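A quick aside before the break. I want you to see a complete sequence-to-structure record at least once, exactly as it would be stored in a machine-readable document. Don't worry about memorizing anything.
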Amino acid sequence: MPMAATAMDHDGGGGGGGDVVTPGELLGNSLTLVAGQGSYADGRAVRASVTGRRRIVPPPPGSSDQRSTVEVVGHKAHSAVPQPGSVVIARIFVTKVMAKMASADIVCVDSKAVKEKFTGLIRQQDVRATEIDKVDMYQSYRPGDIVRAMLSLGDARAYYLSTAKNELGVVSAQSIAGGTLVPISWTEMQCDLTGQIEQRKVAKEERCL
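That is the input. The structure line, written in tokens, reads:
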């Protein structure tokens, strides 16, 4: 698996010289890596939960688990500002999924962290490209979801975001039971604890094999 090998190649001694990664980015395979600070397990994948530098920490001597731990060490934010056409990473507000739109905090713009607070709005007509009139916001996004979206237009008060492409949509989510949701199709994710299936507008992701 090339990505895991790349992660292992960076800073095997636990220093801070690895690649800069952003939330949702693939770090490696959970069969060979343990998710540490700034990362999380997503099925068999390990992904970044914050923007920072990837760091690999070897297992302690004599440990029964011989997997190394992958961490993401905080990276100083750039003064990134959303622009039309920018690809952003956003977190859906806890109480802001409504019938016609969902609100989100933009945390990254074109792989750069933001210093200021920017609000993004995903309208019902911008969720997907087909059968727009049948879109159910509550079956597309839920509070706390991490979403990859493209900025279409807006101003400093609010930016309109679109997920109407295959590679856009939910990249990380937690189930109702508190487990990690693993994508099983473009419209469904499955809880790794209970096996329960939940509806989402899922981003097409590269998967660990």
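Two observations worth writing down. Helices lie at 2-9. Confidence is low (pLDDT under 50) at residues 1-16. We'll return to this after the break.
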